[in-house]
Amino acid sequence: TADNSLAKDASKHWGATFTKYTEIVDPATPATNNELALYAKDDGAGVTILAYKDSAGNVSTLTGGSSSYGSAITVNLKIIRNAATPTTKLDVTADRLSIEGYITTTYNRTIDTTTTGADALDTGTMANNTLYYVWAIFKPSTATPAALLSTSETSPTLPSNYTKKRVLGAFRTDGSALLVEGAQRGNTYMYGVPIQVLHAGAASTATAVSLTGYVPATAAVEASLVGQLETGANNCLVLSWMSFTGTVTCANAFVLGLAMTSNGTVMGPTGTAWVPLLNAVPTTIYYGFSSGTVSLSVAGWRIEWKE
Length: 307
Known about the structure:
Shape: elongated
Structural class: mainly beta
CATH architecture of the largest domain: Sandwich
Number of helices: 1
Largest sheet: 13 strands, mixed
Order of helices and strands: EEEEEEEEEEEEEEEEEEHEEEE
Strand content: over 45%
Helix content: under 10%
Radius of gyration: 24 Å
Number of strands: 22
CATH topology of the largest domain: Jelly Rolls
């Protein structure tokens, strides 16, 4: 009744192997008091659950929320715009994917943003300039996987009987509520065209810049930022996940944070840097510029899955 084949090709770290059980009738009572019989059974309401029988013949069921130990199983995840309908549909595929303890193989879903429900938007209609989260969802009663798009990073509105969920990534809309160009592979997403979050920045001391709405609110652990020199020459830019003390100069820039220069040694007129998002508000980063003005754009992000 147990099938370990789903563990094939999964990363062999703690919690990465799973066993699939097939529902059976109550097994024979174990012969000795140091044995248990673990099996799958019907809970009386049509739901298959895990149970165990001890040497006294007592049957106990394993109920409660699913638990996950270690990293989630995610093999070859891709989230891209649909080739035929790129502005309103997303293709979400993976060779193997875990969803709150359930594993689905050959996961292949297309999300239609023009409607609601499974493989669609969770509720309402698409909004302009909004970050939408891509969810994998699962219906245990029929072992049916699906995908979902929601503005919520934590509590999407689930279709009927879909009780398991897992956030995979995110996609943003433009000013016409259409999906912007971009792609996610594994836990890394890149915009097709970086989106500006700061224009004519001239602060020479630590100044906050909000990435809210451009990177996932809590799942993002790193952001790819593009610095573009607007005015001046031989300038130095400092980027940091936390505030820093001091006025930015090219002499101290590399001490204050992640530094880029516009004299060609590091940044050139345009440079890209991955900045960790470790602030109490993860979507807040800080910049300082030695002189002149600079723009900042978000090119992409990396996330940490929560399952």
